[in-house]
Amino acid sequence: MGHILTEGQFDAPAESAVVDGLSARLGVALPTDYIDFLKEHNGGEGFIGDSYVIFSRPKNLADFNREY
Predict the structure, then answer these.
(1) Where in this chain does the record put each Knr4/Smi1-like domain (predicted)?
(2) pTM score of the predicted model
């Protein structure tokens, strides 16, 4: 999968243990492409086209979703 992120950056890979347990903590099955992305990048932010996106770190996702 290619990522075209401009004016931003991806973080270093997430810890495997965090990524591997993420689906269970969220209570949903996550797409394989998203799991692969997290194993390459521990979140990040920047522009994709004209949209500014923020990819949360996997260790924060369960708390963010619960609070939301």
Answers:
(1) 15-50
(2) 0.67
Are 43 and 58 within 8 A, CB to CB?
yes
Q: Rounded to whole angstroms, how far apart are CA atoms 33 and 55?
A: 14
Mean pLDDT of the chain: 82
Distance CA 51, CA 19 (A): 26
Distances (CA, A) of 13 to 7, 38, 66, 67: 19, 7, 24, 25
CATH number, domain 6-67 = 3.40.1580.10
